[in-house]
Design brief:
Elements (H helix, E strand, L loop, with lengths): L34 E3 L2 E7 L13 H13 L1 H6 L3 E10 L8 E11 L3 E9 L5 E11 L2 H7 L4 H7 L2
Antiparallel strand pairs: 1-2, 2-4, 3-6, 4-5, 5-6
């Protein structure tokens, strides 16, 4: 973890807020709220009708988005840096039904100079895994962060600590 800066927030509470997965202002988004539990990132989500694939089932793309989003926050916990998805490997194990609350968790696997590897699970209410994933996430450079946040001064202040 970078010792010269304040810990970055796991959630966007800025003037941006439009991320599909975690943005509180995204009208069609998942509005995930991330929590830190020890060395893990955790988010709860209730599958709603708007996110179904087959009737009564959560769409696999939403499952993937849930796991991608929690894994992307691992770099904040471990290195106090933002990261962006380089690749994900996901295994779907059990269906998620509309109306079910699921819990997505992610933790650090390894780091090299350019990226973090994380693993994640999406757990059903009975404690079984609906899906598991591993992902690689490139660290976002300060230059790229400055460019991304140029129209959002609050986001820049939060992300560029």
């Amino acid at each position: 973890m970078t010792d010269s800066t304040e810990q970055l927030s796991l959630n966007d509470v800025t003037d941006y807020g439009l991320c599909f997965a975690c943005g509180p202002r995204s009208p069609y988004g998942l509005k995930l709220h991330m929590e830190r539990e020890g060395d893990r990132v955790v988010a709860k989500f209730t599958a709603m009708d708007e996110y179904q694939g087959f009737p009564g089932y959560l769409h696999g793309g939403i499952t993937t988005a849930l796991l991608d989003e929690v894994m992307s926050r691992v770099s904040i916990i471990t290195h106090n840096r933002w990261s962006i998805t380089a690749g994900i490997d996901i295994q779907f194990r059990k269906p998620v039904f509309i109306g079910q609350e699921v819990t997505a968790t992610a933790e650090h696997v390894e780091t090299n100079m350019r990226m973090v590897t994380a693993k994640a699970e999406l757990m059903l209410p009975d404690g079984t895994a609906a899906a598991r994933a591993t992902g690689k996430f490139f660290f976002v450079t300060d230059e790229r962060l400055a460019d991304m946040t140029s129209d959002f001064p609050g986001l820049r202040r939060d992300w560029m600590r």
